[in-house]
Amino acid sequence: MIEYRQRNYSWEDPLKGINQAKNITGLEYLKGIFAGSIAAPPIFNTVDFKVISVEKGQVIFEFHPKEFHYNPVGSVHGGIVTTILDSAIGCSLLSTLPVKTTFTTLDLKINFVAKINTKTPVLKTHTKIIHQGKTTALLEADLIDNNGKVYAHTVSTCMILPI
């Protein structure tokens, strides 16, 4: 007989935060999320990662691998890792954008470098903006442990847009 485990989580109305973001810079918006004064996007609680640092050009997330992240072969699903790195890239770019400006991901390529499971230490993101123009940006991000071991690497192109 299958023993089911259960996970409960909650989130705030995402439109509240999105509406607040329209009249402040990306950095102000992200600092508000970090401080808890602006609702975090529901994806943060759904995937279970958190913002631990917000600076212009670098938003760092922390991720504790859990069994509810697993794929059928007993490691963290690649979609979870991709979501975390896409979020790190997007938020790092957003932190540089002025009022009434947003972005969207145009493409994303990921390399899974090492297996991630519940025995893996706490992981953090590290993002680098390679190029940022008026309409596009090229970024890369790594998911690393405290010793600098890389578990995943991604490169992404984003389009910068007026709201």
TrEMBL record:
<protein>
    <submittedName>
        <fullName>PaaI family thioesterase</fullName>
    </submittedName>
</protein>
<dbReference type="Pfam" id="PF03061">
    <property type="entry name" value="4HBT"/>
</dbReference>
<dbReference type="InterPro" id="IPR006683">
    <property type="entry name" value="Thioestr_dom"/>
</dbReference>
<feature type="domain" description="Thioesterase">
    <location>
        <begin position="74"/>
        <end position="150"/>
    </location>
</feature>
<dbReference type="GO" id="GO:0047617">
    <property type="term" value="F:fatty acyl-CoA hydrolase activity"/>
</dbReference>
<dbReference type="InterPro" id="IPR003736">
    <property type="entry name" value="PAAI_dom"/>
</dbReference>
<keyword id="KW-0378">Hydrolase</keyword>
<dbReference type="InterPro" id="IPR039298">
    <property type="entry name" value="ACOT13"/>
</dbReference>
<dbReference type="InterPro" id="IPR029069">
    <property type="entry name" value="HotDog_dom_sf"/>
</dbReference>
<comment type="similarity">
    <text>Belongs to the thioesterase PaaI family.</text>
</comment>
